[in-house]
Amino acid sequence: MTAASFQQPDRRRPEPLWFQVEEAIRAIIKSGEWSTGDQIPAEDRLCALFGVSRITLRHALRNLEDHGLLRREHGRGTFVRSTTLVAGTRELTSFTQEMRNIGVSVGSRILDCSLTKADAATAAALQIEEGDPVVRIRRLRLGNDEPIGIQTAQLSGARVPGFLDSGLLQGSLYEALERLYGIVPLEAQESYRVGTVPEADAELLDLAAGTPAFIVERITTDERGPFEYTVSTMRGDRYEIRSTLRAGRVPSNPRS
C-alpha cells in the first residue's frame, strides 16, 4: 500500500480532522484495499500518512471500532473486522438504518410473506387476542452480500390492512409502515439469549445446524401501542452486543 492510498485532511474544510480521517479510512475499507482480517498500519505510521496527531487519529479509530468496522486486539494491533452489526445503547432504528450507519451495504431476501393467526406468544406481545390476524414477514438479512441473520416480523393485521399487496415489502419495514399507515416507532423492548441455528435455517445462514447464535426478540410500539413482534436468529460472528455500564452513584469528592 502506498501513501497515495491515503487522503490527508483538508484543514480549510469545516469538518473536524478526526472526522475526515475516519471517512478516509472508511473509504479504504469499502474499496477493499483493506480486507476483512487485515491488520491496519501502526498508529505512528497512520499519523505520518494522514499528517495528523495521535489524539486525532485515535478519535477516528475509536469511532470506527464503535461502529464495528475495526477491532483492537491488545498486544497485537488493530484489524478490519467482518461485517458486524453492533447492538447496544443506540437509537430506535430499523435493521436497514443500522447497517447504513456502520457503512455496510444492506440487503434482504424475503423468505415468506403471509397472513396468519397469532399464537399465544405473538398475541401477548402485540396485545391482541390469540387467533387474531397477523402479517408474518420472514427475511434473510444481508450485509455486504453476506448473511447476518433471519428475522421473522409479525404485525398486527388490524393495524396494517392490505400491506401484503402494497408492493413495499422490500427495503426498510419501518419506512414502509410510516409511508402507508403513519406508524412511527417510539419505543422497543429487546431481549437477547444464546440459542442455536435450527436445521431449517442453517443453509441460509451458511452455518452448520446447531451453531451458537443470538436469538433476539423485539416488541416495538408507537403512540397506539405494540404493532410489531420480531424474533431474529443472528450469526454470533457477525452480530455483537456492546453496552456501556455506569456506576449507580456518584462518588463524593473529599475536597469539596
UniProtKB/TrEMBL annotation:
Keyword terms of this UniProt record: DNA-binding, Transcription, Transcription regulation
An example molecular function term from Gene Ontology annotations: DNA-binding transcription factor activity
Residues covered by the HTH gntR-type domain: 15-83
Transmembrane segments: none
InterPro entries with a match to the protein in the record: Bact_HTH_transcr_reg, Chorismate_lyase_/UTRA_dom_sf, Tscrpt_reg_HTH_GntR, UTRA, WH-like_DNA-bd_sf, WH_DNA-bd_sf
Cited SMART domains: HTH_GNTR, UTRA
Pfam families xref list: GntR, UTRA
Gene Ontology process terms (BP): negative regulation of DNA-templated transcription
Designated name of the protein: GntR family transcriptional regulator
Organism in which the protein naturally occurs: Pseudaminobacter soli
